[in-house]
Amino acid sequence: MFDQMIQMFKKSISKEQIAELLNTTPEALNEFEKAYNAVADEENKASGNFFKLNSRDVAQHADMSSDDIALLQDRIVNELLVASNLLPCNDEPAVTNEEIKALPEELRPQLTGSLVKKDIAGDSYPILLLNYMKWKETGDRHAYHAFRQGLDLLDLDPVAYEIIGTNPNSMGHWFPALKAASDLQDFFKVPETKIVKVPLPILQLTKLDYFSLTPTTLHIVDAWARKAFELDEGKTYFIKTGTYSSKFDFRNAKVTSPEEVREIGQYLLFIHAQAIAMAHYDLSGRNQPCIYGVSTTNEWVVREYIEDKENLPCIYHGMPLHTEYRAFVDFDTDEIIGIVPYWDAESMKKRFSQCEDADTADMKHDYIIYCKEEERLQKTFDANVNTVEEHLRQLIPDVDLKGQWSLDIMQNGDDFWLIDMALAANSALVDKLPVKLTAPEENWLPDLSEK
After folding, report:
1. Is the pLDDT of residue 418 over 80?
2. What is the pLDDT averaged over residues 133-151?
3. What gap in Å lies between CA 401 and CA 407, rounded to an integer?
């Protein structure tokens, strides 16, 4: 049967017919998954596409056993924790460029608590602010796009870092308000969450060629993350940047084993760098337009992983296909604009079957699994959406936010989890609403008076 499934992926019967077949026995689904993994691994390795890689593919596990390097690493990690306001300032001498250059080039750390490696000398903020002010004064959309793309791609300086930190979609802006409101009720759950501002020297690494980063650099980021997030190697975590989880390859988002927990810093750095790379006009093997803003954030996030209670089939390399609700809410009027299925059938089928990569094993697999589960997803949504709306109406007045937002709710058995938010105007599925939303006014100028 396994060989037959392999052939299904390569040609054979239609995807809709396979979806019907998978509803017959659990054994059919198991064979289907084995066949998919075999074909997908072969395809992705051969593609040469940066966006087909995941953080586990590129993780470095080298043992940094030199006492001199280990001591230097520890000093840099402590400097970064001080820069993150997670340790008090101390009188330890700062690591110098001369100390770094004394090491072989392939082992040199590419950051300290105050030193960064740049592609281009000088500051980026003057060109960023020039484009920003041109857009504000004239409405020039080209200047706006240059500003937004520059935020993602240009080297960091302290002002550019603070500009990035103003993005309201970044989790640190909205999560405290959502969590405070959720604590006043007992219907919705919120996963335990720790949000940390990434110090500038680490965030600058996302602007560099990821494959140019040295093992020492990556191990420093790992060690910083272990301490910054107070990680427990016995736990399973869900990780993301302040704006991006890379859930479309769920191997990036879910962290399970003790070894993986020890490498969370590398994983976060990789998914952030991968998201930043989307802002390039083109990369080899990627035929897509420039997409900026995916990780316009200076935050990283480690969350409690919500274990699947329903034993659901998975898409996106391991993400259980839970029923989810995207609610659009107006916090100025305390009204619900509308609630739509997060896994909208039209959108999902179009993505999996009509885009340029529709003939890959990944897209075929996810299309088939979605078709298999489509009826269940809609039935569960219809059975519970009124209850979700009722409890949202009670929650919304207590959320201290302004404007129109999308709020994502995941159902896991009988539990309903508040998992994500974004400005409504920046959210998918707004076209499913009966009304047109208000575009929010953008203000990217940080308050630097205390800095």
Report:
1. yes
2. 96
3. 12
- pLDDT on residue 129: 97
| pLDDT tens, position by position, 279-330 | 987 655 556 678 999 999 999 999 999 999 999 999 999 999 999 999 999 9
Residue recorded with tokens 């201290």: 400
CB 418 within 8 A of CB 407: yes
CA 155 to chain centre: 21
Distance separating alpha carbons of residues 219 and 292, to the nearest angstrom? 28
One domain for residues 385 and 291? no
Rounded Cα distance between 385 and 197, Å, is 35
Does the pLDDT of residue 420 top 80, yes or no? yes
- The position carrying tokens 């609610």 is 327
Taking each continuous run of H as one helix and of E as one strand, the counts in the chain are 16, 11
User: Does any domain span residue 206?
Assistant: yes
- More confident of the two residues 447 and 392: 392
Let me know whether 132 and 263 are in one domain. yes
Helix (H, G, I), strand (E, B) or coil at 213: coil
For 178-189, the three-class secondary structure string (H helix, E strand, C coil) is HHHHHCCCCCEE
CA atoms within 13 A on the CB side of 43: 18
93 in the same domain as 28: no
Dist. CA 330–CA 385, nearest whole Å: 18
Q: What is the pLDDT of residue 1?
A: 45
| Same domain flag for 388 and 413 | yes
pLDDT of res. 279: 92
Instruction: Please check whether residue 437 is in contact with residue 425, taking contact to mean a CB–CB distance below 8 angstroms.
Output: yes
- Please tell me the distance from the alpha carbon of residue 299 to that of residue 122, in angstroms, as a whole number: 24
Residues 85 and 12 in one domain: no
13-43 burial, b if ≥16 CB within 10 A, otherwise e?
eebeebbebbeeeeeebebbbebbeebbeeb
Which sign does the torsion angle of CA 259, 265, 266, 271 carry? Answer: positive
> So what's the pLDDT on residue 285?
53
Based on the fold, state whether residues 280 and 165 are members of the same structural domain.
yes
Q: Which domain holds residue 39?
A: 1-46
Tokens matching residue 152: 């993602």
323 plus 261 within the same structural domain = no
The pLDDT value recorded for residue 22 is 78
